[in-house]
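Thread: Newbie trying to understand structure tokens

Hi all, I'm a second-year student working on a class project, and my supervisor (Dr. K.) asked me to get a predicted structure for one chain before our next meeting. I've only ever worked with sequences, so writing a 3D structure as a token string is new to me. If someone could post the tokens and maybe explain what I'm looking at, I'd be very grateful. Here's the chain:
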Amino acid sequence: MRIVLLGAPGSGKGTQAQKLMAERHVPQISTGDILRAAVESGTRFGQQAKAIMEAGQLVSDEIVLGIISERLREADTEDGFILDGFPRTRQQALDLAELLDELGKPLDTAVLMDVEFDVLLKRLTGRRTCSLTGKLLNVYFSSQEELDACTSNGGELIQREDDNEATIRSRLEVYREQTEPLVEFYRKRDKLQTVNANGTVDEVYARLLEIL
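---
Reply by user tm_fold:
Sure, no problem. This is what the structure looks like when written as tokens:
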């Protein structure tokens, strides 16, 4: 199973990737995670990325692709992988396709986690962390009992600074401009599957397994 997970912030890509990884025993390859790991382990591309980040600059597509190439050559990817957070642009998708062909690990499918815009806004702006337990809650979707369990014991429901509506609308707009063209890219190549990602984690996971 070699898949790319597509979807806006808040669509549940990371959560579903974690469930797939646990059940199917294939690694989730998240760009941010492998970038940090490559820097820490001092791989060839990791050293280049470290120098660029220390200079306060953005890591180029070429280096990110190099780090992904290093990761995909590791033994645990032989039975498959879940790419989460890459590609983000059409050019990255073209580069990835070329890399996977070179490695003999072509993509099986790209899965779009499809969520209504107003649901995305509620998922992201409603996120709160209980100051007592560290539990992640949502003022729109968590039960009143869960919310009260925090506040009635003297805890606070804390919102991250970047979870305000203006910032989130901006993030969703960037996604639409840069990443939504990937949907058409994979559709034209008969690689696209769409999952209705509205609903509970388990409901969405059942739909995901059905198409896979």
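A couple of things are worth pointing out once you decode it. The two ends are 8 Å apart (CA to CA). The mean pLDDT is 90. Feel free to ask follow-ups in this thread.
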